Amino acid sequence: MVMELLEGESLRGRIGKGILTWERVLEIAIPIAEGLSVAHSKGIIHRDLKPENVFITLEDRVKILDFGLARWTEMIPSQELTSALTAAGTLRESGIVMGTVPYMSPEQVRGVHVDARTDIFSFGWMLYEMLTANRLFFRPTTAET
Q1: Neighbours of 126 (CB within 10 A)
Q2: Is the CA virtual torsion 118, 78, 30, 4 positive or negative?
Q3: What pLDDT is recorded for position 79?
Q4: Is 66 noted as a catalytic residue in this protein?
Q5: Could you write out the three-class secondary structure of 35-75?
C-alpha cells in the first residue's frame, strides 16, 4: 500500500478561515469538476464528496481524496437509465445508506440507486459552502439534518 504525503489543508480548513472570493472558488471548483468528470467517465461514483475530502496542496493543486465509499458502476446510457427507472420505479442497491448526510443527495439518503448526479449534488452543496462559509441544511443531529 502506498500513500501520498500531502502538505497543505483540506477544503474544510480553508472554508473555516472565512468566505472565499468567487475567483478563488473557481480556482478550487474547476479542478474538482474536472476530477469528477474523469472519475464519472470511468464509471466511478465517489459517494462521499465533502470539504473534508478535498485537499489543497501548498503548490495550490486541488485533489479529491478518500474514495473509500466509491462505487464502480456499469456505464448505463442516461436514456436507458431513465427508461429502467420509469419501468421499475427505482433501482435498488443494497438499501444501505453510506456517506455524510449534509452532502448526500436525496436518492443516496433513501438508499436507492445513485449515479454521477449524486456527486454533482454534493458538489453543489460544497460550492454553496465555499461562497457563504455556511453549511446548507446543517442541524445538530443526523436525523434533524
Answers
A1: 23
A2: positive
A3: 53
A4: no
A5: HHHHHHHCCEECCCCCHHHEEEECCCCEEECCCCCCEECCC
Distance CA 48, CA 82 (A): 24
Tens of pLDDT, residues 79-88: 554 444 444 3
Please enumerate in sequence order all residues whose Cβ is within 8 A of that of 143, keeping only pairs 6 or more positions apart, or say none.
Answer: none
Active-site annotation holder among 48, 60, 66, 115 = 48
pLDDT digits (tens, 9 = 90+) for 11-35: 999 999 988 999 999 999 999 999 9
How is the chain split into domains, by residue range?
8-65+86-132
CATH of 8-65+86-132, one of 3.10.450.50, 1.10.357.140, 1.10.275.10, 1.10.510.10: 1.10.510.10
Residue 135: the pLDDT is: 79
Q: pTM for the whole thing?
A: 0.74
